[in-house]
Input
Amino acid sequence: MAADTLVVIFGQYYEVGAPPGVSGSIVPAMATIGSGRLLVFTMGRILEGTWSRANNETWFTFTVGGAELVVPPGIPWIHIIPHDRPVTWS
Output
């Protein structure tokens, strides 16, 4: 895998089961409506900020240092992880 920018979105983990009367397994899911922590690894830098999104029909907004962040051109990789999961880097 190669990417120019890694965007890490922290969301609330939950599990989803099949609707009543339908057989199926419980699967993991992540809540991405509202706002949360954000890390962006790009051009040798790590930017910390927040993400927000009003509903499933709108794009994410990324904010770093009070200003909206536009993901730099290139190949991005977006990764959503549970909000309580630690992330380390060196």
Summary: The chain has no helices and seven strands. The mean pLDDT is 93.
